[in-house]
Amino acid sequence: MTVIDVFHHGVPAESDFGYAQAIKSGELIHVSGQLSLDAAGEFLHADDFAAQLTRTHADVDQVLDHYGATRKQVVSQVLYVVDLRRNAAATAEGNLAYFGGHRPASTVLGVTELTFPGQVIEISCVVDTKLPA
Questions:
Q1: List of residues 6+ apart from 66 with CB closer than 8 A
Q2: 61-119 pLDDT per residue, tens
Q3: What is the strand order of the sheet 121-128 is part of?
Q4: Model-level pTM?
Q5: Residue 53 to residues 18, 58, 94: CA-CA distances in angstroms?
Q6: Which helix (H) or strand (E) holds 34?
Q7: 80: closest CA among 38, 122, 113, 119?
Q8: pLDDT at 12
Q9: SS3 label, residue 48
């Protein structure tokens, strides 16, 4: 029988909306869209793409740490970016800085808006814990 390991940041939106930040099923971890939230669930850095991207990556790292996983085990990601044309270069630069030499499959979608006013980035991903860390 497969054990399902669920991770929560403990922010109010998880119970208000009814979702988990991540679920590990077998060797895969499915990470919900991460965004620029602090430990209390408050949205940070409205309209500041660089700051939101940095904080969003930190939240992804928190999920990875929970499972003992690393960035090198991320096999795919989806980035949702408001005003993609304006933020495309910063998206690419931030992605390269975050992953270094690792290259997961990646989809970048330009969207008109996200959950919070001033939110400009959200990232979901899939992690394979069988890959070398």
A1: 7, 22
A2: 999 999 999 999 999 999 999 999 999 999 999 999 999 999 999 999 999 999 999 99
A3: 4-7, 22-25, 28-34, 121-128, 74-82, 105-111
A4: 0.94
A5: 24, 9, 7
A6: strand 28-34
A7: 122
A8: 85
A9: coil
- Classify residue 50 by burial, with Cβ atoms within 10 Å: 0-12, 13-18, 19+: middle
Read off the pLDDT of residues 27-67 as tens digits, 9 standing for 90 and up: 999 999 999 999 888 999 999 999 999 999 999 999 999 99
Tokens 């630069």 locate to: 93
CA distance 27 to 41: 28
List the one residue out of 89, 85, 128 whose CA is nearest residue 105: 128
Tokens of 59: 């939240």
Contact 85, 110 (CB under 8 A): yes
User: In residues, how long is the chain?
Assistant: 133
The enclosing H or E element of 67 equals helix 49-67
Closest CA to 37 of 19, 24, 21: 21
